[in-house]
Amino acid sequence: MTHGCLKCLKYTMCVANFLCFLSGVAVLGFGVYMMVNFKLTALTPSLDKFNLASMLLISGFIISCVSFLGFLGALKENRCLLLTFFLMLFFLLLVELTAACLLLLYEKDISDWVEKDLNDGLKKANGENSTDFYSEWDLVQKTFDCCGVHNASDWGSKAPGSCTDKVTEQLRSTGCLDKLQKWFEENFLSTGISVIVLCIIEVLGMCFAMTLFCHISRSGLGYKL
Asked: Is residue 225 domain-resident?
């Protein structure tokens, strides 16, 4: 009975990690596609190296590597890979919880920093020979139906085409900062639930990996450290 449950646990880990690996590869491939076909720059100068394409590449790489370790460790019953998988999930869980706590503790400071950095980014985008910088601003302004940080006047006389409402053919009056804040407030609950679900999945993955690791250690099966 115990042996059957552990075998079921092993193949459950294999299937779950394989699906996560495929998802990671898809995200990684989409990130590469965006990097090759689009000139994207971060909205804020502080995160200049972490535009949308870069974030997709990093996320896809991390998901692929971690899930591959879990899949191979469970399939081969390799204690070293299982322990590495456990430690990586534990580290990711700590990072996510730390980030969540910092966001809650320093919400006002972060909001002020985002506003200042958006203003700096828009000034940079509005400079001379800066058409490449419009790409992510265009994406945000079209998605959230907004213009500039506070209003269209932030662009001066160089407002991009994405600021123009297609129906009225006039510049949008609402700033993107207000629209982004409202969007985060409206999706705060769903975002929180998503983070909790992700943490639960990571904890389950850690439990499964450690259970399989302990069984292999006691039985003397699989590859040793």
From this structure: no
